[in-house]
Protein backbone atom coordinates (compact mmCIF):
# COMPACT_ATOMS: atom_id res chain seq x y z
CA UNK A 1 0.00 0.00 0.00
CA UNK A 2 1.54 3.35 -1.00
CA UNK A 3 -0.03 5.24 1.93
CA UNK A 4 2.71 4.04 4.29
CA UNK A 5 5.69 6.32 4.89
CA UNK A 6 9.03 4.72 4.01
CA UNK A 7 11.11 3.80 7.06
CA UNK A 8 14.91 3.40 6.76
CA UNK A 9 16.95 0.32 7.53
CA UNK A 10 14.32 -2.30 6.75
CA UNK A 11 12.18 -1.18 9.66
CA UNK A 12 8.90 -1.85 7.94
CA UNK A 13 9.95 -5.50 7.70
CA UNK A 14 9.71 -5.68 11.47
CA UNK A 15 6.31 -4.02 11.34
CA UNK A 16 5.03 -6.49 8.72
CA UNK A 17 5.92 -9.39 10.99
CA UNK A 18 3.17 -8.36 13.37
CA UNK A 19 -0.11 -10.22 13.30
CA UNK A 20 -2.46 -9.53 10.41
CA UNK A 21 -4.99 -7.71 12.57
CA UNK A 22 -2.40 -5.31 13.96
CA UNK A 23 -1.03 -4.64 10.48
CA UNK A 24 -4.50 -3.82 9.20
CA UNK A 25 -5.06 -1.34 12.00
CA UNK A 26 -1.69 0.27 11.29
CA UNK A 27 -2.36 0.50 7.58
CA UNK A 28 -5.74 2.09 8.14
CA UNK A 29 -4.28 4.58 10.60
CA UNK A 30 -1.48 5.62 8.27
CA UNK A 31 -3.90 5.88 5.37
CA UNK A 32 -5.74 8.51 7.36
CA UNK A 33 -2.64 10.35 8.55
CA UNK A 34 -0.18 10.16 5.68
CA UNK A 35 0.25 9.36 2.01
CA UNK A 36 3.28 9.57 -0.31
CA UNK A 37 4.11 12.80 -2.06
CA UNK A 38 7.10 14.36 -3.80
CA UNK A 39 9.04 17.41 -2.74
CA UNK A 40 12.40 18.18 -4.31
CA UNK A 41 12.81 14.58 -5.42
CA UNK A 42 12.00 13.11 -2.01
CA UNK A 43 8.80 11.36 -0.92
CA UNK A 44 7.18 12.59 2.27
CA UNK A 45 3.98 12.02 4.17
CA UNK A 46 1.05 14.00 2.81
CA UNK A 47 -2.29 13.72 4.54
CA UNK A 48 -5.23 11.90 3.05
CA UNK A 49 -8.60 13.25 4.03
CA UNK A 50 -10.39 11.03 6.55
CA UNK A 51 -13.75 9.48 5.80
CA UNK A 52 -16.70 11.81 5.71
CA UNK A 53 -18.01 12.40 9.23
CA UNK A 54 -20.95 10.35 10.37
CA UNK A 55 -24.18 11.96 11.42
CA UNK A 56 -23.83 13.73 14.79
CA UNK A 57 -24.45 11.47 17.74
CA UNK A 58 -26.37 12.45 20.87
CA UNK A 59 -24.26 14.73 23.02
CA UNK A 60 -23.16 13.05 26.31
CA UNK A 61 -23.75 15.19 29.38
CA UNK A 62 -24.82 18.15 27.27
CA UNK A 63 -21.37 18.37 25.59
CA UNK A 64 -20.53 17.73 21.99
CA UNK A 65 -18.15 14.88 21.23
CA UNK A 66 -15.63 17.45 20.01
CA UNK A 67 -15.79 19.20 23.38
CA UNK A 68 -15.36 15.86 25.12
CA UNK A 69 -12.39 15.05 22.87
CA UNK A 70 -10.69 18.32 23.69
CA UNK A 71 -11.37 17.90 27.40
CA UNK A 72 -9.96 14.37 27.40
CA UNK A 73 -6.96 15.52 25.37
CA UNK A 74 -6.25 18.33 27.86
CA UNK A 75 -6.50 15.96 30.82
CA UNK A 76 -4.02 13.61 29.20
CA UNK A 77 -1.76 16.57 28.38
CA UNK A 78 -1.79 17.52 32.06
CA UNK A 79 -1.08 13.90 32.97
CA UNK A 80 1.84 14.01 30.54
CA UNK A 81 3.26 17.06 32.29
CA UNK A 82 3.00 15.27 35.63
CA UNK A 83 4.53 12.13 34.10
CA UNK A 84 7.61 14.07 33.02
CA UNK A 85 7.94 15.48 36.55
CA UNK A 86 7.50 11.99 37.99
CA UNK A 87 10.11 10.46 35.68
CA UNK A 88 12.61 13.22 36.45
CA UNK A 89 12.05 12.85 40.22
CA UNK A 90 12.51 9.09 39.94
CA UNK A 91 15.76 9.53 37.98
CA UNK A 92 17.06 12.06 40.50
CA UNK A 93 16.05 9.79 43.39
CA UNK A 94 18.03 6.94 41.85
CA UNK A 95 21.04 9.22 41.37
CA UNK A 96 20.83 10.43 44.98
CA UNK A 97 20.49 6.88 46.27
CA UNK A 98 23.58 5.82 44.33
CA UNK A 99 25.50 8.80 45.71
CA UNK A 100 24.48 7.97 49.28
CA UNK A 101 25.72 4.40 48.79
CA UNK A 102 28.98 5.82 47.44
CA UNK A 103 29.31 8.08 50.49
CA UNK A 104 28.54 5.19 52.84
CA UNK A 105 31.31 3.13 51.24
CA UNK A 106 33.70 6.07 51.63
CA UNK A 107 32.76 6.38 55.31
CA UNK A 108 33.47 2.68 55.89
CA UNK A 109 36.84 3.03 54.14
CA UNK A 110 37.63 6.15 56.20
CA UNK A 111 36.84 4.44 59.48
CA UNK A 112 39.00 1.49 58.52
CA UNK A 113 41.83 3.88 57.68
CA UNK A 114 41.51 5.64 61.04
CA UNK A 115 41.59 2.28 62.82
CA UNK A 116 44.81 1.40 60.95
CA UNK A 117 46.42 4.75 61.85
CA UNK A 118 45.45 4.36 65.49
CA UNK A 119 46.95 0.88 65.54
CA UNK A 120 50.19 2.28 64.16
CA UNK A 121 50.20 4.99 66.79
CA UNK A 122 49.53 2.40 69.48
CA UNK A 123 52.39 0.25 68.23
CA UNK A 124 54.75 3.23 68.49
CA UNK A 125 53.60 3.94 72.04
CA UNK A 126 54.10 0.30 73.06
CA UNK A 127 57.60 0.32 71.58
CA UNK A 128 58.46 3.39 73.65
CA UNK A 129 57.08 1.72 76.76
CA UNK A 130 59.27 -1.33 76.16
CA UNK A 131 62.27 1.03 75.94
CA UNK A 132 61.64 2.15 79.51
CA UNK A 133 59.39 5.03 78.65
CA UNK A 134 62.37 7.17 77.59
CA UNK A 135 61.79 9.22 74.43
CA UNK A 136 63.99 8.17 71.48
CA UNK A 137 65.73 11.54 71.50
CA UNK A 138 66.79 11.14 75.12
CA UNK A 139 68.04 7.61 74.50
CA UNK A 140 70.06 8.89 71.58
CA UNK A 141 71.61 11.75 73.59
CA UNK A 142 72.83 9.32 76.26
CA UNK A 143 74.52 7.02 73.76
CA UNK A 144 78.30 6.54 74.23
CA UNK A 145 78.85 5.41 70.63
CA UNK A 146 79.21 8.34 68.15
CA UNK A 147 78.41 6.09 65.19
CA UNK A 148 75.30 4.83 66.91
CA UNK A 149 74.38 8.44 67.61
CA UNK A 150 74.69 9.45 63.96
CA UNK A 151 72.77 6.42 62.71
CA UNK A 152 70.14 6.91 65.37
CA UNK A 153 69.74 10.60 64.57
CA UNK A 154 68.83 9.75 60.97
CA UNK A 155 66.35 7.13 62.07
CA UNK A 156 64.90 9.55 64.61
CA UNK A 157 64.28 12.19 61.94
CA UNK A 158 62.62 9.58 59.74
CA UNK A 159 60.47 8.44 62.65
CA UNK A 160 59.44 11.99 63.51
CA UNK A 161 58.54 12.62 59.88
CA UNK A 162 56.51 9.39 59.71
CA UNK A 163 54.72 10.24 62.95
CA UNK A 164 53.95 13.74 61.75
CA UNK A 165 52.64 12.35 58.43
CA UNK A 166 50.53 9.77 60.25
CA UNK A 167 48.94 12.43 62.46
CA UNK A 168 48.26 14.68 59.46
CA UNK A 169 46.69 11.78 57.60
CA UNK A 170 44.58 11.00 60.65
CA UNK A 171 43.39 14.62 60.78
CA UNK A 172 42.56 14.61 57.03
CA UNK A 173 40.65 11.35 57.29
CA UNK A 174 38.62 12.62 60.24
CA UNK A 175 37.87 15.83 58.30
CA UNK A 176 36.77 13.72 55.31
CA UNK A 177 34.42 11.75 57.53
CA UNK A 178 32.89 14.97 58.81
CA UNK A 179 32.44 16.19 55.24
CA UNK A 180 30.90 12.87 54.23
CA UNK A 181 28.44 13.12 57.11
CA UNK A 182 27.37 16.63 56.03
CA UNK A 183 27.08 15.61 52.36
CA UNK A 184 25.10 12.51 53.26
CA UNK A 185 22.70 14.65 55.28
CA UNK A 186 22.20 16.97 52.29
CA UNK A 187 21.71 14.02 49.95
CA UNK A 188 19.11 12.49 52.24
CA UNK A 189 17.23 15.80 52.30
CA UNK A 190 17.29 15.93 48.48
CA UNK A 191 16.23 12.30 48.31
CA UNK A 192 13.24 13.01 50.53
CA UNK A 193 12.31 16.09 48.48
CA UNK A 194 12.42 13.99 45.30
CA UNK A 195 10.31 11.32 46.96
CA UNK A 196 7.67 13.92 47.86
CA UNK A 197 7.82 15.38 44.34
CA UNK A 198 7.45 11.91 42.87
CA UNK A 199 4.45 11.10 45.06
CA UNK A 200 2.78 14.43 44.25
CA UNK A 201 3.29 13.89 40.52
CA UNK A 202 2.02 10.32 40.77
CA UNK A 203 -1.13 11.58 42.49
CA UNK A 204 -1.68 14.21 39.78
CA UNK A 205 -1.18 11.63 37.02
CA UNK A 206 -3.66 9.22 38.57
CA UNK A 207 -6.23 11.98 39.10
CA UNK A 208 -6.00 13.28 35.52
CA UNK A 209 -6.11 9.83 33.97
CA UNK A 210 -9.04 8.83 36.16
CA UNK A 211 -10.93 11.98 35.15
CA UNK A 212 -10.25 11.32 31.46
CA UNK A 213 -11.28 7.68 31.75
CA UNK A 214 -14.48 8.64 33.54
CA UNK A 215 -15.35 11.04 30.73
CA UNK A 216 -14.69 8.39 28.12
CA UNK A 217 -16.56 5.70 30.09
CA UNK A 218 -19.78 7.72 29.80
CA UNK A 219 -19.71 7.37 26.02
CA UNK A 220 -21.57 4.67 24.18
CA UNK A 221 -19.64 2.26 21.92
CA UNK A 222 -20.64 4.21 18.81
CA UNK A 223 -19.58 7.48 20.45
CA UNK A 224 -16.19 6.00 21.38
CA UNK A 225 -15.64 4.96 17.78
CA UNK A 226 -16.59 8.46 16.64
CA UNK A 227 -14.21 9.90 19.28
CA UNK A 228 -11.31 8.02 17.72
CA UNK A 229 -12.34 9.36 14.32
CA UNK A 230 -12.37 12.89 15.71
CA UNK A 231 -8.84 12.37 17.06
CA UNK A 232 -7.70 11.22 13.63
CA UNK A 233 -9.39 14.18 11.96
CA UNK A 234 -7.64 16.60 14.34
CA UNK A 235 -4.28 14.96 13.56
CA UNK A 236 -5.01 15.10 9.84
CA UNK A 237 -5.87 18.79 10.07
CA UNK A 238 -2.68 19.59 11.99
CA UNK A 239 -0.52 17.55 9.59
CA UNK A 240 -2.13 19.22 6.59
CA UNK A 241 -1.48 22.68 8.00
CA UNK A 242 2.13 21.74 8.81
CA UNK A 243 2.87 20.35 5.35
CA UNK A 244 1.24 23.39 3.70
CA UNK A 245 3.99 25.55 5.20
CA UNK A 246 6.57 23.67 3.13
CA UNK A 247 8.13 22.25 6.30
CA UNK A 248 9.23 19.05 4.51
CA UNK A 249 10.44 20.73 1.34
CA UNK A 250 14.16 20.65 2.18
CA UNK A 251 14.24 17.69 4.60
CA UNK A 252 16.57 15.17 2.96
CA UNK A 253 18.61 13.81 5.85
CA UNK A 254 19.49 10.11 5.89
CA UNK A 255 19.79 8.01 9.02
CA UNK A 256 23.12 7.04 10.52
CA UNK A 257 23.70 3.39 11.39
CA UNK A 258 22.85 4.17 15.02
CA UNK A 259 19.78 6.10 13.89
CA UNK A 260 18.60 3.10 11.86
CA UNK A 261 18.97 0.84 14.91
CA UNK A 262 17.01 3.31 17.05
CA UNK A 263 14.21 3.55 14.47
CA UNK A 264 14.10 -0.23 14.11
CA UNK A 265 13.72 -0.65 17.86
CA UNK A 266 11.05 2.04 18.17
CA UNK A 267 8.92 0.80 15.29
CA UNK A 268 9.21 -2.78 16.54
CA UNK A 269 7.26 -1.63 19.61
CA UNK A 270 4.23 -0.56 17.53
CA UNK A 271 1.06 -1.96 19.06
CA UNK A 272 2.36 -2.04 22.63
CA UNK A 273 0.32 -0.02 25.14
CA UNK A 274 1.20 3.34 26.63
CA UNK A 275 1.82 3.28 30.38
CA UNK A 276 3.14 6.27 32.30
CA UNK A 277 6.57 5.73 33.79
CA UNK A 278 7.16 2.62 31.66
CA UNK A 279 10.37 1.89 29.75
CA UNK A 280 9.41 -1.49 28.32
CA UNK A 281 9.53 -4.18 27.36
CA UNK A 282 5.76 -4.64 27.53
CA UNK A 283 4.72 -0.96 27.59
CA UNK A 284 6.16 2.53 27.26
CA UNK A 285 5.50 6.17 27.89
CA UNK A 286 6.65 8.65 25.25
CA UNK A 287 10.16 9.35 26.54
CA UNK A 288 10.51 5.78 27.77
CA UNK A 289 10.18 4.67 24.15
CA UNK A 290 12.70 7.16 22.75
CA UNK A 291 15.27 6.66 25.53
CA UNK A 292 15.10 2.87 25.24
CA UNK A 293 15.31 3.01 21.45
CA UNK A 294 18.53 4.96 21.61
CA UNK A 295 19.86 2.76 24.40
CA UNK A 296 19.28 -0.21 22.08
CA UNK A 297 21.25 1.72 19.45
CA UNK A 298 24.17 2.04 21.87
CA UNK A 299 23.59 5.61 23.04
CA UNK A 300 22.30 6.50 26.49
CA UNK A 301 20.18 9.67 26.53
CA UNK A 302 18.18 11.50 29.24
CA UNK A 303 15.03 9.77 30.47
CA UNK A 304 12.49 12.60 30.09
CA UNK A 305 11.40 14.67 27.10
CA UNK A 306 12.26 17.90 28.93
CA UNK A 307 15.77 16.68 29.74
CA UNK A 308 16.16 15.39 26.19
CA UNK A 309 15.36 18.91 24.99
CA UNK A 310 17.69 20.52 27.51
CA UNK A 311 20.72 18.28 27.11
CA UNK A 312 20.71 17.00 23.53
CA UNK A 313 21.94 19.13 20.60
CA UNK A 314 19.17 20.91 18.70
CA UNK A 315 19.00 20.75 14.91
CA UNK A 316 17.05 22.78 12.38
CA UNK A 317 13.89 21.17 11.02
CA UNK A 318 15.34 21.18 7.50
CA UNK A 319 18.29 19.11 8.76
CA UNK A 320 16.10 16.51 10.47
CA UNK A 321 16.98 12.87 9.80
CA UNK A 322 15.48 9.52 10.89
CA UNK A 323 16.34 8.80 14.51
CA UNK A 324 16.12 12.44 15.58
CA UNK A 325 13.66 13.22 18.36
CA UNK A 326 10.82 15.69 17.88
CA UNK A 327 9.86 17.51 21.07
CA UNK A 328 6.24 18.66 21.19
CA UNK A 329 4.29 21.40 23.00
CA UNK A 330 5.65 24.53 24.69
CA UNK A 331 6.33 22.68 27.93
CA UNK A 332 8.20 19.89 26.09
CA UNK A 333 6.00 17.18 27.61
CA UNK A 334 5.79 14.88 24.61
CA UNK A 335 8.37 13.36 22.30
CA UNK A 336 8.34 11.17 19.20
CA UNK A 337 11.05 9.75 16.95
CA UNK A 338 11.24 10.88 13.33
CA UNK A 339 11.31 7.84 11.02
CA UNK A 340 11.36 9.57 7.63
CA UNK A 341 8.85 10.72 5.00
CA UNK A 342 7.20 13.20 7.36
CA UNK A 343 6.22 10.50 9.87
CA UNK A 344 7.19 9.75 13.44
CA UNK A 345 6.65 6.90 15.92
CA UNK A 346 5.47 7.64 19.44
CA UNK A 347 3.61 6.40 22.50
CA UNK A 348 0.61 8.78 22.44
CA UNK A 349 -1.21 8.57 25.78
CA UNK A 350 -2.96 6.20 28.21
CA UNK A 351 -5.51 4.07 26.41
CA UNK A 352 -3.57 4.20 23.14
CA UNK A 353 -0.75 2.08 21.72
CA UNK A 354 2.64 2.91 20.25
CA UNK A 355 1.92 3.99 16.69
CA UNK A 356 3.06 5.91 13.62
CA UNK A 357 1.70 9.43 13.10
CA UNK A 358 2.39 12.54 11.08
CA UNK A 359 5.41 14.42 12.39
CA UNK A 360 3.39 17.64 12.32
CA UNK A 361 0.25 16.26 13.95
CA UNK A 362 1.13 18.11 17.17
CA UNK A 363 2.80 21.49 17.79
CA UNK A 364 6.58 21.05 17.34
CA UNK A 365 8.82 22.81 19.82
CA UNK A 366 12.24 21.53 18.68
CA UNK A 367 14.17 18.71 17.07
CA UNK A 368 17.12 17.19 18.96
CA UNK A 369 19.80 14.73 17.88
CA UNK A 370 21.04 11.94 20.16
CA UNK A 371 23.97 10.97 17.92
CA UNK A 372 25.27 14.42 17.00
Keywords:
372 residues; alpha+beta; 59% helix; six-stranded antiparallel sheet
- Uncertain segments are 1-43, 52-60
Say how many strands there are: 8
Helix content: 55-70%
The secondary structure category is alpha+beta
Major beta sheet, specifics?
6 strands, antiparallel
**What is the tally of helical segments?**
9
The amount of beta strand, in percent, is 5-15%
User: What would you call the quaternary organization?
Assistant: single chain
Which radius of gyration do the C-alpha atoms yield?
33 Å
**Shape, please?**
elongated
Separation of the first and last Cα atoms: 34 Å
Going across the major beta sheet, what is the strand order? 3-8-4-5-6-7
In round numbers, the mean pLDDT is: 78
Helix and strand sequence: HHEEHHHHHHHEEEEEE
Topology summary:
Layout: H1 11-16, H2 20-33, E1 38-39, E2 42-43, H3 65-130, H4 136-141, H5 146-217, H6 221-244, H7 257-268, H8 286-296, H9 305-311, E3 314-315, E4 325-328, E5 334-340, E6 343-346, E7 355-358, E8 364-368
Antiparallel strand pairs: 1-2, 3-8, 4-5, 4-8, 5-6, 6-7
Helix pairs in contact: 3-5, 3-6, 7-8
